[in-house]
Structures are given as C-alpha cells and as structure tokens.
Amino acid sequence: MNSYLKNRLQSFRYAFRGLRTLFEETPNARIHSVMALLAVALGFWLHISTTEWLAICIVIGMVLALEAMNTAIEMLSDFASQRQMHPMIKKVKDAAAASVLIAAIAALAVGILVFLPKLIALM
Questions:
Q1: Percentage helix, strand, coil, to 5, in the chain?
Q2: Rounded CA separation 113/108 (Å)
Q3: Residues 86, 96: Cα–Cα separation, whole Å
Q4: pLDDT tens digit string along 89-110?
Q5: Quick one: which of 1, 31, 64, 71 has the fewest CB in 10 Å?
Q6: Nearest-10 Cα torsion for 14, 20, 27, 55
Q7: Backbone region of residue 84 per phi and psi (left: phi > 0; alpha: psi in -120 to 50; beta: other values)
Q8: How do residues 15-71 score in pLDDT, each as one tens digit?
Q9: Which domains does the chain show, CATH number per domain?
Q10: Active site residues
C-alpha cells in the first residue's frame, strides 16, 4: 500500500476517533443525535419528499458539525488557558456555542416547516 493511501486511511481513523470523543465527552452531541434520529424516524413515517430529506440531512449535518467544532474550540481553549477563565477565551467559547444554537434554531425551523403540515394533516 502506498504512503498516500496509508495517510488517507489514517486521516479517517483520526476522524472516527474524533467522533467517538465527541459522543463520549459531549452530552449536547448525544442530545443532537437523538433529535436527529427522531427526525429521521419521523421522515420515514411521514414519507417526506426528496427535497425535504435534503433539507433535513443538511441541517442535521450542520448541527452535528458545528457541535464538533464547538467541542474542539472549547477543548483547545481550556487547554490553552489551563482552565483559567480569560475574558477573550470566554468570548470565543460563547461565540462557538452561539454557532451551535443558531444551527439548532435553523434545524428546528426546518423541522417545523417539513413535519408540522404533515402532522396536522394526520389529525
């Protein structure tokens, strides 16, 4: 196996290790995952369209990716500051957390737009 392919495989190992760390050490990532699974189950149950699936998949990916970035920023900030709260570190961590909140609100809006009319039609 050439070194290029070995390096690519190693990068996937690092990424999967990061996923494991994310879900083992970040309660919010687990909450987001449960919500994503519920959205997927609801999507199958309600037979949403391909376009609706695209929207659901994009916001699920966005929320989880931003949660991973937020976690990385928090871990790096804690390490760099030796867990001493510096005003700038606080701003960085708050801004990173805000990015996840914004994505989660967007995901909620997509969920409402996709699922609510279908749920109302069932009543």
A1: 90, 0, 10
A2: 9
A3: 15
A4: 999 999 999 999 999 999 999 9
A5: 1
A6: 80
A7: beta
A8: 999 999 999 999 999 999 999 999 999 999 999 999 999 999 999 999 999 999 999
A9: 3-122 (1.10.287.3610)
A10: 67
